[in-house]
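Researcher: Go.
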Amino acid sequence: MNDRFKPRARRCVTASLEGLAPHVTLELTSSGFTAELVRPPTAGSHVSGQLTLDGFVFPFQAEVTFSQPLDPRLSVRGRLSARFTQVEEGFFEALRG
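Model: Structure:
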């Protein structure tokens, strides 16, 4: 199935990546998320952290599939897209809920 047609949830979800400041996700799906960061990790790197969704904390591991560095001249933050490789049980039910 083409991932572009999966339903996306535009929700304010706090994500904490290990070694980076907490940030807010832009889009969240059952397969991954996109977020804005000052210094996003490069594509292909593996990241781990926690998602806070509806008051519950879900540890996850993901692979960065897309990374765009920030552009300070345009005041644009960097972006990243990551695909989940492992996420705690109960996350998918909380996402649908």
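Model: The beta strands are 14-17, 23-28, 32-37, 46-53, 56-68, 78-87.
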